[in-house]
Amino acid sequence: MSHDLSLAQSHAFQLSRDLMVPVTLFAVDGEYGVLPSDEIDADDDLEIVHEYTPWH
């Protein structure tokens, strides 16, 4: 699973840079996903892994 996480992290970072918006990497039921950070609701049942910003 650590290979999946490193792949997800790499893609999330690149997506943030390509779109020039903050994106959030999250986990649900052992799977990883990425959404623009402004689309994440506090009520969502997500395990936030990391937020990537294109400016850092």
List strands and helices in order, with pairings.
Layout: H1 2-19, E1 23-28, E2 31-36, E3 47-52
Antiparallel strand pairs: 1-2, 1-3
State the main characteristics:
56 residues, alpha+beta, 3-stranded antiparallel beta sheet, 1 helix, 3 strands, 32% strand
Explain briefly what this protein structure is.
The chain is of the alpha+beta class. The protein is 32% helix and 32% strand.
Describe it for me?
A 3-stranded antiparallel β-sheet has the order 2-1-3, with helices on one face. It has one domain. The protein contains 1 helix and 3 strands. The protein is 32% helix and 32% strand. It has one helix at residues 2-19, and strands spanning 23-28, 31-36, 47-52. With 56 residues, the chain is of the alpha+beta class. 12% of the residues are buried. A hairpin with a 2-residue loop joins strand 1 and strand 2 (31-36). The longest helix is centred in the first third of the chain and has 18 residues, at 2-19.
